[in-house]
Amino acid sequence: MNLTFLGTSAGSPTAERNVSSIMLDLRQERGRLWLFDSGEATQLQMQKAKFSLSKLEMIFLTHLHGDHLFGLPGVLTSRSLMQKQSALTLVGPKGIKQFIQTVIEISSSWLTYPLNIIELEQDSLVFEDSKFRVEAKLLQHRVPSFGYRIVEKDLPAKLNIDKLKKDNIQIDSHYTYLKEGLTVTLEDGRTINGKDYQGAIKQGKKLAILGDTIPCQASIDLAENVDLLVHEATQEQALEAKAIERGHSTTVHAASIAKQANAKRLIITHISPRYSLQDNQKLVTEARSIFANTEIATDFANFQI
Ligand SMILES: [Zn+2]
Ligand SMILES: [Zn+2]
């Protein structure tokens, strides 16, 4: 799993930062891309980062403020021009369906692939298959804003073939049973327990990508024990009152959530245009005073999970 920040600015873009969008690259795990938020110029940022629109499988919107939304029509309609067509699922707060329908109709645009829209009004399980599970919870912002917890399911243990060979065990006819950790009786009369020949279960990764919010319990729940938490940090701690008044968090708020949730790693993003890249050190240092394993996102920064 790989996370690339396509935009990291709050509210409006700057010369250094585009507005919110994050790509979760699951090409290794499932051959597809999952996009979180789609601020203005997201499709251009995707091109620069070499992400193909045709590989998009899911788009998750945290909320419908323009700095997270205004790039969506371009992403959806340009995707219709791609040669390879596949269905796309869009998840977002209630209102997203009307927004898309209106934009398509007014601009005389069209989509050439099936678009499945899931509108959220409350905490929900929004996606689940054999490999992944995505849960959404309502945060606290000026408009309904959701956070997402993405869980990769554990991969089943593999059989330790070397150990089986060493013990002179022919597994051909018992493979499935041994793999499931069951006890079998071999042709030579020996009884063996599959559990003794299983390797370690490969633990799936967990991450939380949260929308704009003030510190809240839902954030802690979503980020519980995750390998990586992406949390907004619109302001420095000195501007705490201003942050809260506008429904946002500070560097220290984000770090406190990571700490309370027992997350392994924190990336702060959604940085106010008042700060230039030269302020990164100051902002990240504030967060690290509470949660040491913090990094600050910049556009096109890439994180392996
Ligand atoms: Zn925002
Ligand atoms: Zn917002």
Automatic annotation (TrEMBL):
Similarity comment: Belongs to the RNase Z family.
Cofactor(s) named in the record: Zn(2+)
Catalytic reaction(s) noted: Endonucleolytic cleavage of RNA, removing extra 3' nucleotides from tRNA precursor, generating 3' termini of tRNAs. A 3'-hydroxy group is left at the tRNA terminus and a 5'-phosphoryl group is left at the trailer molecule
Chain sites annotated for binding Zn(2+) 1: 63, 65, 141, 212
Record's protein name: Ribonuclease Z
UniProt function note: Zinc phosphodiesterase, which displays some tRNA 3'-processing endonuclease activity. Probably involved in tRNA maturation, by removing a 3'-trailer from precursor tRNA.
Organism annotation: Gilliamella apicola
Residue positions of the active site: 67 (proton acceptor)
Classification lineage: Bacteria, Pseudomonadati, Pseudomonadota, Gammaproteobacteria, Orbales
Coiled coil region boundaries: none
Enzyme class, spelled out: hydrolase
Residues that coordinate or bind Zn(2+) 2: 67-68, 212, 270
Domain of life: Bacteria
Gene responsible for this protein: rnz
Keywords annotated in UniProt: Endonuclease, Hydrolase, Metal-binding, Nuclease, tRNA processing, Zinc
